[in-house]
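Provenance and format

Records in this collection were gathered into a single text stream. Each protein contributes a sequence line and a token line. The two records reproduced below are adjacent in the stream.
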Amino acid sequence: MKVVAALTIALFAASVASANTTWSVGQEREVDEGYFFKLVKAHVGWRLWRIETETGVECRAVKSATGRPHPTPLGYTVNFSGGEPFFVIYYSRSSGLKHFWKGADIAGSEVSLRRAGEKFWSDETASTTYSDSEKLEVNIVTWEYPAVLVGRREVRGAFDMTGLAEMSAAVEACSRSD
């Protein structure tokens, strides 16, 4: 009887956890106290999120590597977790559209990439630009303690940037709407 009860509780907990990671377009949830995430759009692997907090509204488009699960809202911050590596587009009122790669939850990221057909890796910078439909391989190395090179974590993924232009425009429009 105890085994049946334990199994029932485990299945219920798994279904609740699963339900909390599945989002429908148009759905809004309070992910953490005062952090409201709304899935605005899903398009060719991209997810457009509208994040509302007491300080205002921010919009982010997120795309995970091919074959990886979509990152889910993290909660206590305007960020995401899981499905790494992933690419994020956001809008800054002072400097326009910006992006970053997420590969781990520790500091000191080094992002390298190579485009389809290239043999060698190059360093990604904040000014690196990408094209719609571009195929990329990304390698992200992070260090828990970068000053002494301890706690290395490496994550790699392939990306099809199809939909980049549309989602960039959607992030900007969403961000300017408030």
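Adjacent record:
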Amino acid sequence: MQKIETQNSISDKNMRSQKNVVLSAPDEKCFWVCDGRILRNLNDLAAALKSMSEPTFKYHVSKSKNDFMKWIKEVLQDNKLARSLRRVKTRMSTLEKVEARIKALQV
């Protein structure tokens, strides 16, 4: 069976071919953290997660929702990272997954 990629899915190969740059969201689709920070890409998310308070993280990630995963899937269109964040519920686990993905994309 041949693997088919959709336009909504950005493959590792395609992302690497873009000069190892982590894609940024257009201004109108940036992620607005409840503490006032504005995130445009995975690097911004990683930096925010490092210093984010637990209440702020829990505002965006709970048993019933994961705003970061949704933004990564729908806006950044990184289905691989979104899938890996599906069940992650801690700030440090989320940070680890995001940093690993950034590293993988920069190879």
